[in-house]
Write a structure and sequence with these properties.
Oligomer: heterodimer
Helix content of chain B: 25-40%
Structural class of chain A: alpha+beta
Largest interface: A-B, 36 and 42 residues
Shape of chain A: extended
Shape of chain B: globular
Helix content of chain A: 10-25%
Distance between the termini of chain A: 113 Å
Structural class of chain B: alpha+beta
Strand content of chain A: 35-45%
Number of strands of chain A: 10
Chain lengths: ~220, ~475
């Protein structure tokens, strides 16, 4: 019996210690997961479809920070093997062509599954903008990206920190930027479809009937 | 020389002089179109503003244009766009099939936000019956169901309709008529496409709200020097105002001057008082109103306009400010309605704002002016180039923590620092009624600012260059 109690106590202690580790692990993971991001993209919403020639970029900064906002056009890659004549002999070379995605057929919410993004390449669309939020307060960076043609676009926000280092040779102070956080949002821009918005279809039917009655009554008293 | 000959020469000279006078008068009056008889008189008569009609002042505070992509721009009515929509409604009303139906709020929203449209938003409610009378609109079937409105809209999704919104009663109407589709195209073609781009708050701040805010606004960011309009005792304007207010009874008016320099003219036992403070603020009160009744919004507004004419109120000497009908407060009903008209001063189309109301306030009761205040400032326009201001979202973020803390303290709410800022913005956005760019008066300067108006009537100003007042 004594032996059994000892074993039970040992097992219970072991379980207790192990569960402590388990809890500690969960807490650490959670702490990492919930670590609040400094910058978050409010607009454009990730993986959204826009039917326009412009879109809004809005970035929220939760604390004082400097961000670099860049808009890229994501272009599809086409690789072809072409035969070229070099010094009289035929050489096979790989030709790479980049083109805008044909977004006219993109309808699904998760359109990203339709395209080969892993092989696509980002091309800078607008000059990157730098913004610093006000001291001890939240800040918003807003900008309207205009004259956009149909295709895939990526808004990238980098939270940057200034790092000062000394040049070993000259001894001068050099300022460099270090990216401490990076967020991006993919957006699909489509051409506006010419479709009429029907707002009053039902109301119109009602009205037509009412109009007939009103006209009939009017004609009676004419 | 024979006296007869001398007399004849004199007569000829007189005739020649008379003819020359007639000829010169003809040349002055007929050849130069700008010459008016009133300008040739040795004294100035108070005629400026006399031609202003009530309908000229009842105008939308903003026009929102939505393009085919659903993008919106907001602008002030500087052109004849409002006149063209009134003409459009007039033509609608004279069609045999014209009639009115009530529609759902969602239909109004869809028609104005999801397709090409124009919205004319007013800062006050306009009685529909009076509006029809002013613009000759034929009130046929169902027109009487629209009592008041504060928005008019036309949309590509319903070219055969004009939509009306009554925000106070949350009612929406549609006037339908079988009319030419080109009418819509003509009005929209005249719309000013250039304006401030506005976006739903959800897209800019990530917070659910029906409000739209500008993202890019081209504004003049230069501060402008200003000063209060003052009156010097004994000057022409000072005595003239008192005389125009009291008329023939001026001889029976008592004049009192207090230690602060305020001069008060009093008729009877305070039946009519006129006080002019040393800082130039003028107040007039009339407690002995005659028996009368309200002439409606347009009629009483005309009474207010004519009263302002007495004060030469449409022009401020040495100033480039303008008076605009900013808001109307209504109390009472029907024939006993009392209208308070707030005519705000504006500079370069931007309202002059501050703790005080700048401009004139006229209260019309029983069809007569019962009170008036005049608080004018003098300022000259800035012609500096307009800059792109993109800081509206930041202006909200800047005032939000303080606003939310006040609310939490009043309601004994404890919030953690972590959720505080996000909650503060959500709370503040929900409390905001309107955001507009104004000139905020600070000391002797007008500072270009965002004016944020809250549900409780309070206001906050943030300078376009992020300075909080």
């Amino acid at each position: 019996m004594k032996e059994f109690k000892r074993v039970l106590a040992f097992v219970l202690t072991l379980v207790f210690i192990m569960s402590c580790f388990a809890f500690a692990d969960v807490t650490t993971t959670k702490a990492i997961d919930t670590k609040e991001k400094v910058a978050s993209i409010v607009s454009p919403e990730a993986n959204s479809i826009v039917s326009s020639d412009s879109f809004l970029v809005s970035v929220k900064l939760n604390k004082e920070a400097t961000i670099k906002v860049s808009v890229y056009e994501v272009k599809a890659v086409e690789k072809k093997l072409v035969i070229q004549q070099v010094s009289g002999s035929a050489v096979t070379k790989e030709a790479i062509k980049y083109y805008s995605f044909d977004t006219s057929t993109f309808e699904a919410i998760d359109f990203t599954s339709n395209v080969a993004l892993d092989t696509a390449k980002d091309f800078l669309y607008t000059t990157p903008a730098t913004y610093t939020s006000p001291k001890d307060a939240m800040g918003f960076y807003t900008n309207k990206v205009e004259n956009v043609t149909p295709g895939m676009y990526k808004v990238t926000v980098e939270v940057v920190e200034e790092v000062k280092t000394k040049d070993e040779k000259t001894g001068k102070e050099i300022k460099t930027e270090k990216v401490i956080e990076k967020t991006s949002s993919l957006i699909c821009v489509k051409e506006k479809l010419e479709k009429e918005v029907e707002v009053f279809s039902q109301a119109k039917e009602k009205t037509t009937a009412l109009t007939v009655i009103s006209n009939f009554l009017k004609s009676l008293f004419k | 020389m024979n006296s007869k000959i001398i007399e004849r020469i004199k007569s000829i000279i007189l005739v020649v002089l008379l003819l020359l006078t007639i000829l010169l008068l003809y040349l002055v009056l007929m050849q130069n179109e700008n010459v008016e008889i009133s300008n040739l008189l040795p004294f100035k008569t108070v005629t400026e503003g006399a031609s202003i009609q009530a309908a000229d002042l009842v105008r939308p505070k903003e026009i929102i244009y939505t393009n085919e992509n659903g993008e919106m721009t907001s602008t002030y009515d500087k052109t004849t766009l409002y006149q063209s929509i009134c003409k459009y409604i007039n033509e609608f009303s004279h069609q045999e099939t014209s009639m009115v139906t009530e529609i759902e709020a969602e239909q109004y929203e869809a028609a104005t936000t999801k397709s090409k449209s124009l919205q004319f938003n007013f800062a006050y409610e306009i009685p529909f019956k009076e509006f029809c009378q002013v613009y000759g609109i034929n009130r046929t079937t169902g027109y009487s169901s629209i009592k008041e409105f504060d928005s008019i809209a036309i949309s590509e999704s319903a070219k055969d309709s004009v939509l009306f919104k009554n925000s106070k009663e949350n009612k929406y109407y549609r006037i339908i008529s079988e009319t030419d589709d080109n009418l819509f195209e003509d009005v929209v073609a005249n719309a000013i496409i250039e304006g401030d781009s506005i976006y739903p708050v959800a897209q800019v701040l990530g917070i659910k709200s029906n409000m739209y805010i500008p993202v890019q606004a081209k504004r003049n960011t230069e501060e402008v020097y200003c000063m209060y309009e003052t009156y010097i005792e004994g000057s022409f304007a000072f005595e003239d105002i008192a005389e125009s207010v009291f008329g023939e009874t001026i001889s029976f008016v008592r004049k009192i001057k207090d230690s602060f320099g305020t001069v008060t003219y009093m008729y009877g036992y305070g039946d009519k008082t006129l006080s002019i403070a040393a800082d130039g603020k003028i107040e007039y009160k009339n407690t002995s109103l005659q028996i009368g009744e309200s002439a409606g919004l347009y009629g009483d507004l005309q009474t207010a306009i004519e009263f302002i004419n007495l004060w030469d109120g449409w022009s401020t000497q040495n100033s480039e400010t303008e008076l605009k009908l900013e808001s109307i407060e209504v109390s009472g009903a029907d024939k006993n309605t009392i209208y308070s008209f707030y005519f705000n001063q504006s500079l370069s189309d931007e309202k002059i704002s501050g703790e005080d109301i700048f401009g004139m306030t006229v209260v019309v009761e029983k069809g007569q002016v019962s009170a008036m205040t005049r608080n004018n400032i003098i300022a000259i326009k800035s012609y500096a180039e307009r800059e792109n201001c993109t800081e509206v979202a930041n202006a909200i973020a800047q005032i939000a923590p303080e606003k939310y803390e006040e609310y939490c303290n009043e309601n004994n709410i404890n919030v953690s620092q972590k959720t505080k800022e996000q909650d503060a913005i959500a709370y503040t956005v929900n409390e905001i009624v309107d955001i507009q760019s104004v000139y905020k008066m600070e000391g002797h300067f007008l500072i270009p600012s965002w004016e944020i108006l809250f549900k409780d009537g309070s206001k906050e100003w943030i300078g376009l260059k992020q300075k909080q007042f």
